[in-house]
Automatic annotation (TrEMBL):
<dbReference type="InterPro" id="IPR054707">
    <property type="entry name" value="DhpH_subs-bd"/>
</dbReference>
<feature type="domain" description="2,6-dihydroxypyridine 3-monooxygenase substrate binding">
    <location>
        <begin position="163"/>
        <end position="289"/>
    </location>
</feature>
<dbReference type="Pfam" id="PF22607">
    <property type="entry name" value="FAD_binding-like"/>
</dbReference>
<dbReference type="InterPro" id="IPR053212">
    <property type="entry name" value="DHP_3-monooxygenase"/>
</dbReference>
<protein>
    <recommendedName>
        <fullName>2,6-dihydroxypyridine 3-monooxygenase substrate binding domain-containing protein</fullName>
    </recommendedName>
</protein>
<dbReference type="InterPro" id="IPR036188">
    <property type="entry name" value="FAD/NAD-bd_sf"/>
</dbReference>
Amino acid sequence: MSGLDVLISGGSMGGLFTGISLARSGHSPTIYERSAGALKSRGGGIVAQQNIRRFLSDHDIVDPDEITTRSHERRFLTEGGGVERAVSETMVFTSWDALYRQLRNAFPDEQYRTGTTVTGVTPETATATTDDGTERSADVVVAAEGGQSATRAQLHPDVEPEFASYVAWRGVVDEATLPAVCVEAFDEMFTFYQGADQLILAYFIPGPDGETEPGSRRLNWVWYDTLDGRDRGAIFTDTSDTEQRFSVSPGQLREPVRHRQRDRAAKLPPVFETLVSETPDLFVQAIYDLTVPSMVTGRVCLLGDGAFVARPHTAAGTAKAAGDATALAEALASHGSINEALAAWDQARTEYGTTLVARGKQMGDVRLNLD
Ligand SMILES: Cc1cc2nc3c(=O)[nH]c(=O)nc-3n(C[C@H](O)[C@H](O)[C@H](O)COP(=O)(O)OP(=O)(O)OC[C@H]3O[C@@H](n4cnc5c(N)ncnc54)[C@H](O)[C@@H]3O)c2cc1C
């Protein structure tokens, strides 16, 4: 099959991977993205798994080496800062903003409609309604709307994200602003500290404009921490006094919350304590699990975080979105009808997502001592 008309709701990673794969397979995808302008990074790093790098090179988007950094050792520190264990291993990292920029540039502007929200779908006819009241029918609708997908809520009203009882504090710092001793401690390393009920890790990612040379990169850290009796509502109430359900963005944490977390950093190895205290803008996200029973309803597909959210320990959220997209293009190319292709895709990707979420739960509960 080729020449299918595909409407994609959501123009972040999942929507762009899908749009690019389908366009390169001879289909006509249109992306609707509710945000008005370019998406702004939450400032984080991502593990550039092999399938992401392959996607970039196979589609002639960019040489992955141009937007990635590498570590050559996984290193575990003691509370005092010594090296407890070191394992030789190469890992490849990028930043959300560097990857998004490359994918967005590879997808035509005229097929990417910003400031447009999909408000409802009719699965039988592959129809999407947008917030200006327009209805458009296509061959297939793909909802790549992230963890809070409204299309998923319409199709699976009983499916709710389940809070995992801990949060991830995160931050990104320009290496140029860090003390040399701190840069040296983390350089070329994927560094961890595992405490009794917390885990912090750090790795280098490209700079704000994708720079990968030493001196211009950023250091990215993620600190998983239990609430330890603290009120989740208070942590997630931002500077505008709104209680957020899943995350408080950089710059929007209230001062007392920020201070309290910085104080908790005193129990970390000294290089991590320095890293946290030198970070201008901490932010926080709730860790949760999400599983749908099926990714396809009629002619509507749920893709990426809209279908499954696995805990970040799996380092697989963006890679899964790329895998879903690539597999969808392959299924449409290798089956005689749309319905057969969607059924095969649904079976394979639902099984993958379900297994990944289960693996993430197990990894997180062991690491945070929640068993
Ligand atoms: C702005 C932004 C910044 C991010 N920064 C990071 C980061 O720094 N590090 C990291 O690890 N992960 C980050 N993520 C999350 C990461 O992209 C995802 O976990 C993963 O890549 C899966 O992507 P996704 O496309 O399935 O979901 P998401 O990335 O969550 O994208 C969903 C998209 O759908 C749009 N959308 C939702 N509902 C509708 C609707 N009804 N109609 C139209 N559009 C809709 C949203 O505006 C969003 O752009 C970020 C996500 C976003 C949106």
